[in-house]
Amino acid sequence: MTKTALITGAAKRVGKAMAIHLAAKGWNIAIHYNTSESDAKLLMEQLKSSFPGQQFALFGGNLNNAPEVETLVSRVVDAMKNVDLLINNASVFDRADFAGTDTEFLDRQMNVNFRAPFILTREYVRLAKNGLIINFADTRITNNKSNFAAYSLSKKALWEMTKMAALEFGPNIRVNAIAPGLTLPPEEKDEDYLWKLAGNIAMKRPGGLDPILKSLDYIVNNDYLTGQLLFCDGGENLGLTD
Ligand SMILES: NC(=O)c1ccc[n+]([C@@H]2O[C@H](COP(=O)([O-])OP(=O)(O)OC[C@H]3O[C@@H](n4cnc5c(N)ncnc54)[C@H](OP(=O)(O)O)[C@@H]3O)[C@@H](O)[C@H]2O)c1
User: Fold this and answer.
1) pLDDT digits (tens, 9 = 90+) for 83-128
2) How close is the Cα of 180 to the center of ligand 1, in Å?
3) Residues with Cβ within 8 Å of residue 45, at least 6 apart in sequence
4) Peptide bond into 171 cis (omega under 30)
5) Fewest CB atoms within 10 A around its CB: which of 88, 92, 184, 205?
């Protein structure tokens, strides 16, 4: 049976790249989106015409809203019969230091980046019974900089959750994480922004999508790997040179 991947936040950027990459390897894709409905539709049409023998379907949902999160996996299972891979990719990335983080702001970062992957993992385990979960963390989990305080804490919690889930849900379900570094600039910034930041990391250049897709393949193909984090960050986790 063709395998199915559910990718959250798949309409654009990293999520879209992974959808195209996995589809080219023969996967069916459940494309989750929130506000980017037209991008999601375009992606689905593109995938349907490139890979006519596979299944592609759209699933909208606001991951800040628990009831919508709770039903997402069951909606995908109903429509696509099975889910073999869950990629918790969707994320909010908003700047505020600790003192500047009000409760509503904290809730949003934690809900989308940590609570939603927690609920989706629980529902995936309940309904899918076996397979693989990949959580998107961030190289920032290795430091205590507070310029994105709530975001960083949400990703630290997501990594801790990855290990706990891997231990509880083996051997039928593997749970791993990817920690990107300088991958794509935020939507309002350009490549120069990333190149400037890259001057202070070991590899001296942004990584783009390629290391992410290679790490995705590695995790998918290595069926003894669980509870692990792959840094795709050109060594940024080691610290900055300057
Ligand atoms: N880009 C980087 O350089 C970088 C660096 C480190 C870590 N990461 C991590 O890698 C992953 C992918 O990065 P990215 O830059 O591609 O992510 P992104 O563009 O910031 O976000 C991906 C998607 O998340 C969805 N999302 C946001 N809020 C949501 C909500 N309330 N409900 C449902 N979906 C929601 C959005 O979907 P809609 O557009 O449909 O609303 C968005 O397109 C993220 O987890 C990110 O934290 C990225």
Assistant:
1) 999 999 999 999 999 999 999 999 999 999 999 999 999 999 999 9
2) 12
3) none
4) yes
5) 205
Rounded CA gap, 43 and 181, in Å? 25
Q: pLDDT at residue 159 above 90?
A: yes
- In this predicted structure, the answer to whether residue 242 has a pLDDT above a threshold of 90 is no
Residues with CB under 6 A from ligand 1: 9, 11-15, 33-36, 62-64, 89-93, 112, 136, 138, 180, 182-184
Q: What is the DSSP letter of 140?
A: G
179 near 199, Cβ under 8 Å?
no
Q: pTM of this prediction?
A: 0.98
Rounded to whole angstroms, the Cα distance separating 201 from 217 reads 25
> How high is the pLDDT of residue 1?
84
Query: In the numeric block, which tokens belong to residue 208?
Result: 């783009």
What's the CA gap between 229 and 239, in Å, rounded?
A: 17
Which domains, and CATH codes, for the chain?
A: 4-230 (3.40.50.720)
Q: Which ligand 1 atom sits closest to the C-alpha of 13?
A: 16
Residue owning the nearest CA to atom 11 of ligand 1? 89
Which DSSP category does 173 fall into? E
